[in-house]
What does this fold into?
Amino acid sequence: MSERTPDPSPRTDAEPMAFTADEFLRGAVAAWLWFNLLFDPTLAVVSVMSQSPQWGPWWSGAAMMLLYGAPIAFVVSGLVTLLSCGAAWIVGRMLSRRRSFVLHSACFALLGAAIGTLVVVGYTVAIGASVGEMNPIAVIAIGSSAAAVPLGWGWTVRRSVRIEAGRERRPSADVDAEYEDSL
It folds into this structure.
């Protein structure tokens, strides 16, 4: 049976917060999932709170948001995540020499807020609406983005530290190949 040797850590004394491409990808996916976990339920709750009786029962707005809004948000946020990976990579590399979790969290929250703002402004311009008409959705989108990016970063950092400390097993590159090698 072959033992998988641990990959060397990218973190050094000079760059205590350096990261690998796998860790970056894990963080991007985590931020995307966090955004959807924050945005969709919040949008559903706000739609319930603002539902007018003339439009049907209280739950119809939430159902509409979850049936139509959530899948659209899932796809759009995935595209936005892909398009904003370059900016996140640059911010991460710029901060790799700084160990402060507070600084990293604040910078990634600002990045998330900036990305959310760009998406809201782009959407508002595309549909020809005024910012006032988009206010609840804009606040939810920007707030969810501002929270999701540092949450995804934080989860990834904690997981990477646990893996390096030996408290969590590093994910296998190819489970089938490892099993075949063990035979």
In short: The chain has a mean pLDDT of 86. The first helix runs from residue 21 to 49. The two ends are 7 Å apart (CA to CA).
